[in-house]
Specification:
Layout: H1 17-34, H2 42-49, H3 53-65, E1 69-71, E2 78-80, H4 83-90, H5 94-110, E3 114-119, E4 124-130, E5 145-146, H6 152-160, H7 163-172, H8 186-199, E6 202-205, E7 212-220, E8 226-234, H9 235-258
Antiparallel strand pairs: 1-2, 3-4, 3-8, 4-5, 6-7, 7-8
Helix pairs in contact: 1-3, 2-3, 5-9, 6-8
GO molecular function: DNA binding; DNA-binding transcription factor activity
GO biological process, one term: negative regulation of DNA-templated transcription
Keywords: DNA-binding, Transcription, Transcription regulation
């Protein structure tokens, strides 16, 4: 009989480093597809996430088996799948609960739509919205993404980033033109971010959508997520309300932050 001892059983409750890496890569692929709702080819995904196409193929095949991704077209490409709908519906956003009293107060005082958004990899993602009471109001859907450089909430978030984070964002972003007022050069955007830091709020003066302006302010949540609260307003009302909305937003966000210091 051998005296050699058997190796201890593996700890099945602790995932391997390889398993953790696969999960991280799958999450990165899903985030990339989230920002491209029409879908991407495997080559495009590989280029975006910096992985070999063969690795992306294996991960996408696994995601497809769980309906987390679907073919984007009959010929090629993939997009987010229907299984994410039920996952999204079950998601609980403590950030939205934390900001809810502030959003409600802002909406009550100004009568305009109030939005809460969070920083994603290359976009701002809307988490919550209180619709305005005016017949003509600026509305969008929860879960919709908006660019950084052409929106008030996006520019407010960029202005709050440190130099390292802003440098990484600069490598990812394309300053696409949406209207004649859109900032499309980094030097101009950096100048705008400096002005935002000085005055404390960011403006969108028909830079993303004609007929819509907005004011926004960014802040860190108690769990350190970078978020922004914005008030989009039809352009016909914005000029007369711009100063009032800016002061109201700054005051209410200062109150919100003071409760969690």
């Amino acid at each position: 009989m051998s005296n050699q001892q058997s190796p201890p059983p593996a700890d099945v409750s602790r995932p391997s480093k390889g398993g953790i890496q696969v999960i991280a890569r799958a999450a990165e692929i899903l985030r990339v597809l989230m920002e491209r709702p029409r879908g991407l080819s495997l080559g495009e995904i590989a280029l975006d996430v910096g992985l070999p196409r063969s690795t992306v193929q294996r991960i996408v095949d696994a995601l497809a088996k769980e309906n987390l991704v679907l073919p984007a077209t009959a010929s090629h490409g993939v997009k987010l799948g229907p299984a994410l709908i039920s996952l999204g519906a079950a998601t609980h956003f403590p950030i939205a609960e934390w900001a809810a009293p502030c959003l409600a107060t802002l909406a009550k005082h100004c009568g305009e739509t109030v939005d809460l958004s969070i920083v994603s990899r290359t976009n701002m993602v809307f988490l919550e919205q209180i619709p305005g009471t005016h017949r003509l109001a600026a509305l969008s859907a929860v879960g919709v993404t908006f660019p950084f450089h052409s929106t008030a909430n996006g520019k407010a978030a960029l202005a709050l980033m440190d130099e390292n984070s802003l440098g990484k964002m600069r490598q990812r972003l394309t300053l696409e033109r949406y209207t004649a007022n859109t900032i499309t050069h980094w030097d101009a955007l950096l100048d705008e971010l400096s002005r935002i830091r000085e005055r404390g709020v960011a403006f969108d003066r028909e830079e993303n959508t004609l007929g819509i302006c907005a004011v926004a302010k960014a802040l860190r949540s108690p769990s350190n997520e970078l978020v922004a609260i914005s008030i989009p307003v039809p352009s016909v009302r914005f000029r007369d309300k711009e100063a009032y909305l800016s002061d109201l937003l700054a005051m209410e966000l200062a109150t919100l932050q003071s409760k969690y210091r």
